[in-house]
Amino acid sequence: MNRSIFILVIFLLSLLGFSAITVDRLRLTAVKWLPWKAKIALPEESNVQNLKMENYQLRTQLDLVYNWLSSEKYLADQVALFRTMGQAPDVTKRRIDEIKSLLQKKAMAALGRVIYRDPSSWSSTCWIDVGEENNRSLGQSIIAKNSPVISGSSLVGVVEYVGKRQSRVRLITDSSLKIAVRAVRGSVSEREIALLTQMLGERLKKHPLKQTLLEFEKTLPVRWEDGYFAKGEISGTSGPYLRSLRPTLKGIGFNYNFADLEGSSRDLNSGILQERDLLLTSGLDGVFPPGLQVGTVTEIKPLQPGAYAFDLEASPSAGDIADLAFVYVLPSTSD
To answer: Which of 167, 185, 232, 315 has the most beta carbons within 10 angstroms of its beta carbon?
Structure first.
């Protein structure tokens, strides 16, 4: 007995000396042989799963087409505005180029299914069923380290490990993932509301609420000008072991102290941050392309004496990330 305990202790201690690569391989092997892998789905379950995947793909394609049309409409309106005002459309062209670049990445995205979530890191990571084999079948490296993972137009996380058939995703609700974002007001948030309204209308079909929804859609403001304000950094709150009842993001360092391509610097009290502002990736972290939706500001912390930036709380744009069944993987920005 003592000899068995001694061997077990030596084995456990030896695990501490494994490299990160070896640990990742061990985790990947464990994920491959989890119970979900051995379970044989019934035909009915398989059909339901396929229908869910097709439905998700169709909704994402609707989102893609709507954003293409929105960007073209935005461009046409802004060019006309600049012509009447005699201004150079440098800012508009740059922003449209960013929108089109993001949409092109979405068109190349690979669809993945969430297959496992470790209870010990429930709000930090998840595994999806795409990897190197999918890259070979696609003929290009889409699933790679630092590939952004999205649901619709909302950021979910980033790929941090790629296996043969599975990949591990670091979620935005994890405290270790820092994302550079910017507060945006105006058309971008209005387009999101209009898109969600249209999607809800498609689902309601002949429901009595359909007419009410159509009347609401007519009242939505139509503007094609965005206001870009405070910049900062946002991360999750990490709730391992237990599923968070309300996923929350925390933001720090939000200010507009320095001029940039969007305009001159602004004072902290000049309305650079408001509740319900949409937080978009700014691209300053070098990992995520600009324009992905991260969250909506729900609370702005009081500015402390002598402080030079705001802290805030936000709700993820992707909703309850724990309930996501399918996601899309975008090509890595570094590639």
So the answer is: 167
Q: Which residues pair with 314 in a beta bridge?
A: 249, 297
- The pLDDT value recorded for residue 319 is 83
pLDDT at 36: 46
Which amino acid makes up residue 321?
I
Assess whether pLDDT exceeds 80 at residue 190: no
d(CA 280, CA 182): 5
Cβ atoms of 298 and 278 within 8 Å: the answer is: no
Question: What number is the average pLDDT over the span 31-43?
Answer: 47
- Between CA 220 and CA 153 the distance in angstroms is 20
- Strands (E) in the chain, as ranges, are 110-116, 125-128, 148-151, 154-162, 167-171, 179-186, 226-235, 249-255, 278-281, 293-300, 310-316, 326-329
Amino acid at position 302, single letter? P
Q: DSSP letters along 3-39, please?
A: HHHHHHHHHHHHHTT--HHHHHHHHHHHHHTSHHHHP
In the block, residue with structure tokens 């009347």: 215
Asked if 116 and 34 touch (Cβ cutoff 8 Å), the reply is yes
Tokens found for residue 292: 């992905």
Res 25 pLDDT > 70: no
The DSSP annotation for 165-192 comes to: S-EEEEETTSTT--EEEEEEEEHHHHHH
Residue 207 above 70 pLDDT? yes
Query: If we measure between CA atoms, which residue out of 243, 269, 273, 268 comes closest to residue 258?
Result: 268
Residue with tokens 């209308």: 201
Domains and their CATH numbers in the chain = 43-173+323-329 (2.40.10.340)
Instruction: Read off the pLDDT band of 169 (50, 70, 90).
Output: very high
Q: What's the CA gap between 114 and 205, in Å, rounded? A: 29
Q: Is 71 helix (H, G, I), strand (E, B) or coil?
A: helix
Neighbours of 209 (CB within 10 A): 11
Residue 1's SS3 state is coil
- Specify the amino acid at residue 141: S
Per mean pLDDT, which range of 27-36, 111-120, 142-151, 324-333 is the poorest? 27-36
